[in-house]
Design brief:
The structure is a homodimer of 267-residue chains. Chain A has 267 residues and is of the alpha/beta class. The first copy, chain A, has twelve helices and eight strands. In chain A, 42% of the residues lie in helices and 16% in strands.
Chain lengths: 267, 267
């Protein structure tokens, strides 16, 4: 999927919602455990109930890998039912030396068919570039994450000026373009978005941390939105686990709709 | 496996060799492609031919994930035939917010039974700590990697003094101990090892970059060795692909023995 197509979906659906499919077999409604593949069954009902309200789905690979080979089969099946017009994100936070990143790219883009993958920047350019060699596929590079640990290194002041996460933005934006790179910027740090937009005015930002992690959608839109919206705001737990009974998908839809309506007002 | 047991293995085998099982189905000898699971068959023969010469095996997960579900099954089978006294490393370079790292820990330590996992530091303490909650399991944190991209961020000078990778060492060493944390330090930067040993004198270092990537074993031992050896030096491609014919395992053994003999002289 390219940037224009993504922007069109956002306008059509009046939504820049990304739903994180962080499906934890220990948290899904009990009645699903009887089905052959409970994680897939959960995802299927979530996708059926929400696909008109969001523009992106983001399975976090850890939740599938935790269930071993069976988990990866749930992921494969989930990828097959995500509608083609919805931007899929492999939340994998990969990154390794060049020949290894090439293997991850093959796994995520070719085997699973993801549109994009989240990548960690610590190993530098040659760990990121193999992901950029695919037509209409995207790298979503970690810049400023939503967790407490973000303060350990990402906000360190550099001798040359600026912070580490700003240097990650400045350096990495030369590796690709706004047509094949996005950045992860946590909603819990919305006050940094204005500064980030000075460095990367055109790139899309993937913003986790709204919902369970407590970030404000209004602030994110105020400081982060650009001409093409430029935002994918993720919510996971607050939607997936809105209900714990047989009506979990309805409850998830209601929660997604609440966010979508707020987004429609902000667009 | 604990630190004393690892040290005992090093003394017994006169080796601190780690063999990277970066098994690429496109590079293994052609005659193996007839077998039911060529990657596993290759690994099996490599392990049979080298297990008395090395103290660690390190499958890089990307190479298995690139083959989809079948690849993960090859990995599961490989883990079952690695002898118990050999330290197994999931070279996965994971790291995510706490509840997600917990899932990765479950996948790698519980499902596959790895002794350790490589973790990327960018997301900070709460992305690393879930891996430290397991008895006799290890985090191997990226500090200074062997690739060209290491220069992009790891060697940035900080305003408070020192470089980013040194700050990663200083801060992260308080998250665990030398009994549950190791660090990745590339052999291609052996001159940094003396400085690194000032910060973490007791920790084991996992040192990639000897062999195909060109680092010197002698320099690594000179600057990096401590009282318990404190080194696991990895070679992957130079051993795995030493031969391309039916005698590939013999050729791999010969290459591993060459390194082991040099290590025996350095111990």
């Amino acid at each position: 999927m390219n940037r224009t197509q993504l922007h069109e979906q956002i306008l059509k659906k009046k939504s820049f919602l990304c739903i994180g499919l962080d499906t934890d077999i220990k948290k899904i409604p009990k009645h699903l455990l009887k089905s052959e593949d409970p994680v897939f069954e959960f995802n299927k009902q979530i996708i059926e109930a929400t696909h008109d309200l969001c523009v992106s789905y983001k399975p976090n690979l850890a939740f599938y890998e935790a269930n071993g080979v069976a988990g990866l089969m749930s992921l494969e099946k989930t990828m097959k039912i995500i509608p083609e017009e919805i931007f899929s994100i492999a939340d994998a936070k990969r990154g390794d030396i060049g020949n290894t990143s090439t293997m991850y790219a093959r796994a995520l883009f070719e085997n699973y068919g993801f549109d994009s993958v989240t990548v960690a920047p610590y190993m530098g350019s040659d760990s990121v570039k193999p992901f950029l060699g695919y037509y209409d596929k995207w790298v979503i590079l970690l810049a400023l994450t939503s967790n407490e640990g973000a303060f350990d290194f990402q906000l360190l002041q550099l001798a040359k000026g600026g912070t580490l996460y700003e240097e990650v933005l400045k350096k990495s934006k030369t590796w690709g373009t706004a047509d094949n790179m996005m950045y992860v910027v946590g909603a819990t740090k919305a006050e940094y978005l204005a500064q980030i937009r000075k460095i990367i005015p055109d790139h899309f930002l993937l913003v986790p941390g709204v919902g369970a992690q407590g970030g404000s959608l209004k602030d994110v839109a105020k400081y982060g939105m650009n001409k093409q919206c430029g935002l994918l705001v993720n919510a996971s737990r607050s939607i997936l686990y809105a209900g714990a009974g047989e009506d979990f998908a309805e409850k998830a839809r209601a929660e997604a709709m609440k966010i979508q309506k707020e987004m429609a007002g902000l667009l």
